[in-house]
Amino acid sequence: MLRRINGTALIIAALVVTVGALAFPVWSYADRSGTGQANLNASTVATQWGPLSAADRDLLVKVRLAGLWELPAGQQAVERAPSQAIRDAGDHLIVGHTDLDRRARDVAAKLGVELPNQPTEQQQGWLRELSAASGKEYERKFANLLRNAHGKVFAVIAQVRHTTRNALIRQLASDSNQTVLDHITMLEATGMVDFDAIANEAANGASASPSGPPAPDGNLPPSPPPAQPSGDISVTSRPSPAAPGTVNTDRPEVPSGG
User: Fold this and answer.
1) What b-and-e string marks burial along 160-199, b requiring 16 or more CB atoms within 10 Å of the CB?
2) Which residues contact 100 (CB under 8 A, 6 or more apart)?
3) C-alpha count within 13 angstroms, C-beta hemisphere, residue 98
4) What is the pLDDT of residues 188-245, one digit of tens each?
5) 141 near 89, Cβ under 8 Å?
6) Is 46 helix (H, G, I), strand (E, B) or coil?
């Protein structure tokens, strides 16, 4: 009888230990630090404009760093580039980052975030690389170094804009995205951006397989032939000439450059 009781007690004790072992990871994971929510809470501080997270502060630093190397790069392009397209891109860098840097420093002062005062070692290396180049080599390096840098920060800005709970950071992210997109557009307009190199670098750094519909088999339907004139002549109204001293509002607006 005693032997039977001892055996039952051992079985009950083993069951208790097993259940505890199974429950402990669930309990500890829910309570431990290192989870996404725990990290967010630990790195966030309260401000009068809303919670300020580590990602928010990182954006401020990245915007400041971008200006610290892209402003001198733009000034160098205006002074040295042989083609007008590169000089135009450099001018956009100067104008955009002068304004964006002022905004970032103003926001950082209000939020109490310390900003760097010199570019990173990598950014200083890019500036040295540009300074050592000349002619077409200089223009290719300028277009591709800056286009690649802008493309990478563009995704970071968009993510912060999507997730921030701080009103000042949200506005800065909106302004930054507009500026970065303008710079990307100008750099691509030079015709010197190596899109294959950008795509290959991004693919080599990706950890997940791409998803989406399968690639087409190459048997695409032919394009429809251009429409033929019907032979009927339709009369379209032309804008009447404006009287001297007045503005003819019927004329299409001519877009200005830049």
Assistant:
1) bbeebebebbbebbebbbebbebbbebbeebebbeeeeee
2) 63, 66, 67, 175, 176, 179
3) 9
4) 999 999 999 999 998 887 666 656 677 666 666 666 666 655 544 443 444 444 444 4
5) no
6) coil
Token code pair at residue 55: 């990602």
Q: Report if pTM > 0.85.
A: no
- Beta pairing partners, 52: 45
Helix (H), strand (E) at residue 54: helix 54-80
Question: Distance between CA 185 and CA 176 in Å, rounded?
Answer: 14
What CA–CA distance (Å, rounded) separates 57 from 67? 16
Contact present, 49 and 108 (Cβ < 8 Å): no
What is the four-CA torsion angle of 153, 158, 162, 164, rounded to 10 degrees?
Answer: 30
